[in-house]
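Blinded run. Sample ID left blank on purpose so nobody reads anything into the name before looking at the predicted structure. Input follows.
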Amino acid sequence: MKVELIRYTPEPEKVVAAAAKLCYSKTGIDGILDDLESGKTEKFLNILMDLGHESPIEHVYFTFGVEGVSRVLTHQLVRHRIGCSYSQQSQRYVKLDQFEYIIPPQIQNINSAKELFIKAMEEDQKYYDSIVDILYADNLDKLLKEGKSEKTAKQTAEKTSIEDARYVFPNACETKIVFTMSARALLHFFRLRACERAQWEIRELSYEMIKKVKEVAPIIFKHAGPGCLSGECPEGAMSCGKRVQVREKFENL
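Blinded prediction complete.
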């Protein structure tokens, strides 16, 4: 898994402090950036985040580039819709001559399971290649008979062939995605996906994302993590029962 923070709102904490300042003072928009040197910004933001006043943090955005993850992960990721945008590598337009795949740790650690898993992945590639070839030949013949030029026919035939052949690919198939989230959306994402009960892969992603955003906006994300960091576990009877260990983990993250 590779996680990069590609871009983010410049001076994110100053932007949030300025927006919050407008809420709590008589200052007009011409003066909201005045007197927001580092010390005052930090003090103001610490109060803001401790109070849980999150609407001002919607003004700042963070864009991530992620690769080396499965479609199992991205199917979960794109369910987060408010304040989020996504651009994912397409299997419809990109022909995968040798697809990469993610092996879950539980399978990786048992040789017999790992052997079967790898065999299944290799078979999937063979089936994909064969189906593409069959569909390509059929589509090309039809397009040429319709009077398409050879160049156009070949391009269209490949695109329409891989469009349907991709159905054979598994959830384990590696993918790449760029996505943008507001700071408020990120905090919500972390509360759900950094939880011990979240699926292992998206939980690992959330850890890496938390590390990245804390480097550039440490106060905004001072409480970033699962819900049990700041109170009782929101999972109730479904709790993992490891609140003390979880809090220790995030103190050192």
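Unblinding after everyone has recorded impressions. The chain has a mean pLDDT of 90.
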